[in-house]
C-alpha cells in the first residue's frame, strides 16, 4: 500500500443494511442506527435512523471516517432507539486488513458483511457494508464531520454518543447516553 | 417464452418452430431453473436472442440464373439427432443473400447450444409454396455450418462467419469444396434488458371484510388467450387499508411480453384461508399504465358479475393510480461478455488416498484403458466444455491437492502439470493430459484441505484485479471426500466472496457430503468465518456427481446455472459497466 506518507487516511464506509436484528430475541420493529468508529482514533460517524425497515433495516448511507495509520480495526455498532432510551443491538469489528493490503487495487470497492454480537457476545444479526479507501490527504478535513448523503425521509438525527471508554484497544464499554441510560441500567 | 415474437407476421412461419427447442429433453431442468431465477429477480441469464443470417459466395446451382437460397436452422444436442428450429424466407437469384426472417431462441448459459445451419437452393417450381411445407430432400443442398451459440455471443460485434461445408463431398474428397460462407448475427432483444419500476395505489376500495377494512393486494397477469391469464407479478398485502399504496413493483418487459401486451391487474382482499375475494380489476398494458402515470388520472376498477347467462362488468367507484413509472435498462450477462469480460476457468483435483489406488479398477482415479472417462474426467469435460467458450486464451490453471509429489512432503496445492514454474495448461485436453500425468507421478495421501487451493485462486483473482483485468474466475474443485479443514475453507470462501470468483464443487464417489452442503449458501445460512466476517454473497455451488449417473439431468447444468447470476451480482453491486 502506498499510504506511508499520511498520518491518517480516510475511508468511505457505506452502511448498507442490517439483517435479522433482534433485541431480547425478538425482531426489532424500527428505529435502528449505526455508529462507525476507529479503534484508537477519535473519529466516529453515525447514520440516520431507519424507520421502516424493521429488523432488516436499509440505511444506504455513506460515512467518511478518518483512520489513524496505526489503527488495526474499526468497529461498527448498531443501536436501536426505543421508548426508554437507546440500546446497543450488537457490535462488529472490521479489521483494516479486510479492505486494504494484499494485491487488490487501492480504490477497490469492498463489500463486507459481519456477524453482530451483543454485549454478552451472543450472536445477533448481520451488518452489510461497502468500504473504499480514499487516499487524497487533502480531502480529509472536508470530511471531518459525517456526510449524510442518504435520501431517507427520516428527519430526526440522533445525538451521537459523546464519550467512549477503551482500554488497550479492545472495546469494553459502550457509549454513554446521559440520562437516557438510567432507564436501561439493567441492560447496559 | 418461445412465442415471444409470434406477433411478428413476417417471421411467423419461420419462428413457428421455436417451440421445438422446448421439446428437447433439456428443457425440463432449464425451465425449473428459469423459474427459480425469475423468482429471485434475475432475468438476465435467460436472454431472448434474435439470429439473423447472411451469406456470401454461395455455389451457383441453377443453370440459367443464380441460386435461390434459404436457411434452415437446427439445434443439436450431444449424440442427438438434429431438431429443426425454423426456416428463413427464400431469396431469389442471389449468391450473396441477406435474409430478413429472424429466428428467436433462448440463450442458456449452462448448456452448450450447438446450432446447425443448412442452406438450400429452392427450385423455382416451389416458389409459391409456404417455406414450412417444403420437402428439403427435393431441394438442392448448398452447404452446412455448425457453431455453438456461445461462440457468437462472446464476439464483440456478436456476429460469426463460418465456412459452409458440403456433407457428401467432404467425405469423398479430402479437399473441402468451396461452398461460401454464412454469417450469423445474434442480437439480444432489448426487452430482455428493460425493467419497469411502478408504484401502484388504489382509492375507494370496497369493504369486503365484515368487521374490518379490506386487506388488499394486486396481482398482475398477462392475457395470453381470451380467457387464459398468466400471473407475472404480485404485491404485498396491506392490512386494513382502503387507500393502499404498495411497494414498488419491478417487472421486466420480457416478463410482460411487450409494452403493448394486454395485462390484467386484479385487486384481491387477502383471506388467510387462501380464498381471496376479488375486489375489482382493470385491463391495461404497460403502455397504458405509463400514460396513466403521465396524466395522473385514475382508472376505474370493474367487477365481473353474472346476470343470468351473461357476464356484466359492474364499474366500481374504486380507482387505480400509477404513482411512479420508470424504465431502466440493466446490463445483462451477455452485455458483459460482448464488453470484453471473460470467465477464467481453474481446476483443482483431489488426490487424497481415499480415492483408492489409481491402478485398481475400483479407484475413483482409475483410468480405464478402454477410454471410458472416470468421474473426475467426466466432471472436467462437462464443466470445461461449457466454460471454455468464455475464456479466450483457453489456458487453464490446474492444481492437485492432498498428495505427495515425487520426493516431497504432502502438498495441498501442487501444479497438475508437474512443473514448478507455471500452473497453466492448454485447453481441456491439456487438463486431461496433466491429470493423467499427475496420477503417475504423485502418491496419494491426505488430509483433504481446500483452504490452500481456494486461497491460491483468490490471489490470482485479486492479482488480475490489480492489473485492471476484466475477468471473472471460476474454480472447479473435484473431490471424493469430506473436507478436513472446514473452518479454513470457510474463512477462505468468506474472504473470496469480495472477489470476482465463483467456486464450483463436484463431489464424486459415495462419501457423505453433508458438510459440503454447508458451504453452499443456498442450502443453509450465510457462511461465517472464525473472525465473525460473513460472506457478502454466495459464491459456492456444490453438486454430488453421483446424482447424474442415475438420472438423465446433467448435474453440470445445475452447477453452472447460477454462474451468470453470481457474475451479475458481483458486477452490479460494484456498478461495473460493460462499456458496450
UniProtKB/TrEMBL annotation, chain A:
<dbReference type="GO" id="GO:0006952">
    <property type="term" value="P:defense response"/>
</dbReference>
<dbReference type="InterPro" id="IPR044750">
    <property type="entry name" value="C2_SRC2/BAP"/>
</dbReference>
<dbReference type="InterPro" id="IPR000008">
    <property type="entry name" value="C2_dom"/>
</dbReference>
<dbReference type="Pfam" id="PF00168">
    <property type="entry name" value="C2"/>
</dbReference>
<dbReference type="InterPro" id="IPR035892">
    <property type="entry name" value="C2_domain_sf"/>
</dbReference>
<feature type="domain" description="C2">
    <location>
        <begin position="1"/>
        <end position="109"/>
    </location>
</feature>
<protein>
    <recommendedName>
        <fullName>C2 domain-containing protein</fullName>
    </recommendedName>
</protein>
TrEMBL record, chain B:
<dbReference type="InterPro" id="IPR035892">
    <property type="entry name" value="C2_domain_sf"/>
</dbReference>
<comment type="similarity">
    <text>Belongs to the copine family.</text>
</comment>
<keyword id="KW-0106">Calcium</keyword>
<dbReference type="InterPro" id="IPR037768">
    <property type="entry name" value="C2B_Copine"/>
</dbReference>
<dbReference type="GO" id="GO:0006952">
    <property type="term" value="P:defense response"/>
</dbReference>
<feature type="domain" description="C2">
    <location>
        <begin position="176"/>
        <end position="302"/>
    </location>
</feature>
<feature type="compositionally biased region" description="Polar residues">
    <location>
        <begin position="16"/>
        <end position="27"/>
    </location>
</feature>
<keyword id="KW-1003">Cell membrane</keyword>
<dbReference type="GO" id="GO:0005886">
    <property type="term" value="C:plasma membrane"/>
</dbReference>
<dbReference type="GO" id="GO:0071277">
    <property type="term" value="P:cellular response to calcium ion"/>
</dbReference>
<feature type="region of interest" description="Disordered">
    <location>
        <begin position="1"/>
        <end position="27"/>
    </location>
</feature>
<dbReference type="InterPro" id="IPR045052">
    <property type="entry name" value="Copine"/>
</dbReference>
<dbReference type="GO" id="GO:0046872">
    <property type="term" value="F:metal ion binding"/>
</dbReference>
<protein>
    <submittedName>
        <fullName>Uncharacterized protein</fullName>
    </submittedName>
</protein>
<dbReference type="GO" id="GO:0005544">
    <property type="term" value="F:calcium-dependent phospholipid binding"/>
</dbReference>
<dbReference type="Pfam" id="PF07002">
    <property type="entry name" value="Copine"/>
</dbReference>
<dbReference type="InterPro" id="IPR000008">
    <property type="entry name" value="C2_dom"/>
</dbReference>
<feature type="domain" description="C2">
    <location>
        <begin position="29"/>
        <end position="162"/>
    </location>
</feature>
<keyword id="KW-0449">Lipoprotein</keyword>
<keyword id="KW-0479">Metal-binding</keyword>
<keyword id="KW-0611">Plant defense</keyword>
<feature type="domain" description="VWFA">
    <location>
        <begin position="344"/>
        <end position="563"/>
    </location>
</feature>
Amino acid at each position: 500500500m502506498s499510504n506511508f506518507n499520511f498520518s491518517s487516511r480516510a475511508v468511505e464506509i457505506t452502511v448498507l443494511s442490517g439483517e435479522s436484528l433482534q433485541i431480547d430475541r425478538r425482531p426489532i420493529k424500527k428505529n435502528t442506527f449505526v455508529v462507525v468508529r476507529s479503534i484508537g482514533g477519535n473519529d466516529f460517524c453515525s447514520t440516520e435512523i431507519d424507520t421502516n425497515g424493521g429488523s432488516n433495516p436499509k440505511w444506504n448511507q455513506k460515512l467518511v471516517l478518518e483512520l489513524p495509520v496505526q489503527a488495526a480495526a474499526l468497529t461498527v455498532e448498531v443501536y436501536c432507539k426505543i421508548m426508554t432510551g437507546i440500546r446497543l443491538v450488537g457490535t462488529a469489528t472490521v479489521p483494516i486488513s479486510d479492505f486494504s493490503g494484499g494485491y487488490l487495487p487501492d480504490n477497490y470497492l469492498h463489500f463486507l458483511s459481519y456477524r453482530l454480537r451483543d454485549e454478552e457476545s451472543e450472536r445477533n444479526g448481520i451488518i452489510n457494508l461497502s468500504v473504499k479507501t480514499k487516499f487524497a490527504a487533502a480531502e480529509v478535513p472536508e470530511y471531518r464531520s459525517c456526510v449524510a448523503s442518504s435520501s431517507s425521509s427520516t428527519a430526526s438525527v440522533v445525538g451521537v454518543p459523546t464519550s467512549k471508554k477503551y482500554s488497550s484497544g479492545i472495546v469494553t464499554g459502550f457509549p454513554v447516553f446521559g440520562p437516557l441510560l438510567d432507564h436501561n441500567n439493567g441492560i447496559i | 417464452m418461445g412465442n415471444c415474437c409470434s406477433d411478428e407476421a413476417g417471421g411467423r412461419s419461420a419462428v413457428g418452430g421455436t417451440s421445438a427447442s422446448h421439446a428437447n429433453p433439456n428443457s425440463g431442468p432449464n425451465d425449473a431453473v428459469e423459474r427459480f431465477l425469475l423468482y429471485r429477480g434475475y432475468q438476465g441469464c435467460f436472454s431472448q436472442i434474435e439470429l439473423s443470417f447472411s451469406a456470401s459466395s454461395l455455389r451457383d446451382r441453377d443453370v440459367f440464373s443464380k441460386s435461390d437460397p434459404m436457411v434452415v436452422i437446427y439445434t443439436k444436442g450431444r449424440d442427438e439427432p438434429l431438431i429443426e428450429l425454423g426456416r428463413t424466407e427464400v431469396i431469389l437469384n442471389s449468391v450473396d443473400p441477406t435474409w430478413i426472417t429472424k429466428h428467436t431462441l433462448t440463450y442458456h448459459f449452462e448448456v452448450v447450444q450447438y446450432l446447425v445451419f443448412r442452406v438450400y437452393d429452392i427450385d423455382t417450381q416451389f416458389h409459391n409454396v409456404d417455406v414450412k411445407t417444403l420437402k428439403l430432400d427435393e431441394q438442392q443442398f448448398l452447404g452446412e455450418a455448425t457453431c455453438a451459440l456461445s461462440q457468437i455471443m462472446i464476439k464483440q460485434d456478436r456476429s460469426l462467419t463460418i465456412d459452409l461445408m458440403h456433407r457428401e463431398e467432404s467425405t469423398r474428397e479430402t479437399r473441402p469444396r468451396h461452398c461460401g460462407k454464412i454469417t450469423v448475427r445474434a442480437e439480444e432483444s432489448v426487452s430482455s434488458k428493460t425493467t419497469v419500476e411502478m408504484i401502484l395505489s388504489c382509492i375507494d376500495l370496497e369493504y369486503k371484510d365484515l368487521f374490518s377494512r379490506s386487506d388488499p393486494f394486486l396481482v398482475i397477469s398477462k392475457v395470453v388467450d381470451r380467457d387464459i391469464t398468466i400471473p407475472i407479478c404480485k404485491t404485498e398485502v396491506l392490512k386494513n387499508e382502503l387507500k393502499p399504496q404498495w411497494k414498488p413493483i419491478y417487472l421486466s418487459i420480457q416478463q410482460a411480453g411487450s409494452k403493448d401486451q394486454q395485462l390484467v391487474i386484479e385487486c384481491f382482499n387477502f383471506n388467510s384461508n387462501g380464498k381471496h375475494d376479488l375486489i375489482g380489476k382493470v385491463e391495461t398494458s404497460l403502455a397504458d399504465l405509463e400514460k396513466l402515470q403521465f396524466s395522473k388520472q385514475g382508472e376505474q376498477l370493474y367487477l365481473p358479475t353474472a346476470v343470468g347467462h351473461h357476464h356484466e362488468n359492474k364499474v366500481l367507484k374504486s380507482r387505480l393510480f400509477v404513482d411512479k413509472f420508470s424504465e431502466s435498462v440493466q446490463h445483462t450477462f451477455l452485455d458483459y461478455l460482448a464488453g470484453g469480460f471473460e470467465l477464467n476457468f481453474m481446476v483443482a483435483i483431489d488426490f487424497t488416498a481415499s480415492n483408492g489406488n489409481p491402478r485398481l479398477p475400483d479407484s475413483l482415479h482409475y483410468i480405464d484403458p478402454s477410454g471410458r472417462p472416470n468421474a473426475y474426467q467426466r466432471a472436467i469435460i462437462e464443466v470445461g466444455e461449457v466454460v471454455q467458450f468464455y475464456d479466450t486464451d483457453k489456458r487453464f490453471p490446474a492444481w492437485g491437492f492432498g498428495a505427495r509429489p515425487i520426493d516431497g512432503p504432502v502438498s495441498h496445492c501442487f501444479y497438475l502439470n508437474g512443473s514448478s514454474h507455471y500452473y497453466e495448461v492448454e485447453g481441456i485436453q491439456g487438463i486431461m493430459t496433466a491429470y493423467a500425468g499427475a496420477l503417475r507421478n504423485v502418491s496419494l495421501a491426505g488430509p483433504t484441505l481446500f483452504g490452500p487451493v481456494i486461497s491460491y485462486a483468490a490471489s490470482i483473482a485479486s492479482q488480475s484485479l490489480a492489473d485492471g483485468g476484466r475477468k471473472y474466475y471460476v474454480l472447479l474443485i473435484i473431490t471424493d471426500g469430506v473436507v478436513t479443514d472446514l473452518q479454513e475453507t470457510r474463512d477462505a470462501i468468506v474472504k473470496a466472496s469480495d472477489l470476482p470468483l465463483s467456486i464450483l464443487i463436484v463431489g464424486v464417489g459415495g462419501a457423505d457430503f453433508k458438510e459440503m452442503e454447508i458451504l453452499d449458501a443456498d442450502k443453509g445460512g450465510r457462511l461465517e468465518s472464525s473472525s465473525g466476517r460473513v460472506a457478502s454473497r454466495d459464491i459456492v455451488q456444490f453438486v454430488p456427481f453421483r446424482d447424474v449417473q442415475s438420472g438423465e439431468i446433467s448435474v453440470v447444468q445445475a452447477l453452472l446455472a447460477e454462474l451468470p447470476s453470481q457474475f451479475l451480482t458481483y458486477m452490479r453491486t460494484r456498478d461495473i459497466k460493460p462499456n458496450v
